[in-house]
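Batch manifest line 350
LIGAND: NAP
JOB: complex structure
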Amino acid sequence: MKKIFVNGYGSIGSRLVSFLKDDPEITLVGVGKHTPDPRVRHAILQGLDVYVPESKMNAFSDYDVSGSIESALDKSDLVIDASPGGYGYQNKKNLYEPKNIRAIYQGGESVTGAESVSDLLFNSRSNYDDALAKYHVMQGSCNVTGMGKILEPLRERFDNLVRFDVTLIRRWADIEQTQKELTDTIEMTQSPHHGDDVKMYLGQDAPLYVRAIKVPTRQMHLHIMDIRFDSTAPRPSEIHDIFADESGVAILWTAKGTKDVRDYAKTMGFNFTDTNMIHIHANMTASIGDTIQIMYSDDQTGIVIPENHLLMQAMLFERPYAKALAHTESIFHMKEKKLKLEEHFAKSVL
Ligand SMILES: NC(=O)c1ccc[n+]([C@@H]2O[C@H](COP(=O)([O-])OP(=O)(O)OC[C@H]3O[C@@H](n4cnc5c(N)ncnc54)[C@H](OP(=O)(O)O)[C@@H]3O)[C@@H](O)[C@H]2O)c1
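JOB STATUS: finished
ARTIFACT:
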């Protein structure tokens, strides 16, 4: 039985622990909290052991915490860092490296520059094997993960791809971030990191060009992608067929917007109202000359959770990809969720 600690109990950390609790191969040591607020009690009520920084123990005297983060790391085999962007690097330097513990970092960190947390940016579909037995690996962010789920199967299927142009329409805030106001504007992102991040696993020569804007919604990201071929592009159905058996990619025909997908996930009682996948909006696919136009929505908080679970298996269990995918499937039930989504948003028959 391997022991895992999750440092951070926000949007990503709380989701991670809810699935890790269901994994019979894992003992969840607990979660790290940094602010003494009602979320501490929330975590304890969920049956979790809460650990806090040694230096802040006094501030948590009103709560029944289980000890210091430092002591939790001492009894863990791997830590999943789910701290706000940039803090993962500090935690690596101050805690994880000195304690020689394996660590997974999230997409708000960096794999280049002075504050790089790793030389590997993980995308299970692209470089799973590179993470086997590694000590420090960064999971790609939600947008970066979503692009890999589309681009890697396309690259496997076609050898005449010329160029990918992507416009990322990013959500402003997460569902639970009710205190974060949505500003009535369309914000432009100068020099988005997402294209460079994707090239860390696709290769620096990938002909990928990314633009990004942020819009006032909590309901997922939407990616608009043009895929250029060196001759006439395939038919839309040929593109959709590639993803028929692809884990974590659903083909939807009748969703009018991203909220329809989220609302359906809520109705079906999916954990945290997440689908944990991307959704190709098949009614928007068009083949024009040498170009395929597609749109897909990306469940911002949910998509990286099964990815973390796969990465954990590579680093800790050194398990082959197919076996890891099967184990993740047994916990996340991705096939069942995909089927339900595809049935609900099936092509309407007149
Ligand atoms: N939200 C998304 O949709 C999304 C998607 C993909 C990737 N990510 C990435 O995942 C990471 C976490 O994002 P999030 O949205 O979950 O953030 P979040 O909701 O703000 O949660 C961050 C958590 O980290 C804790 N924390 C604060 N300082 C810390 C430290 N020094 N060490 C460890 N934990 C600390 C906070 O604890 P207290 O509340 O107790 O202070 C809080 O529980 C970021 O790198 C982000 O870019 C986010």
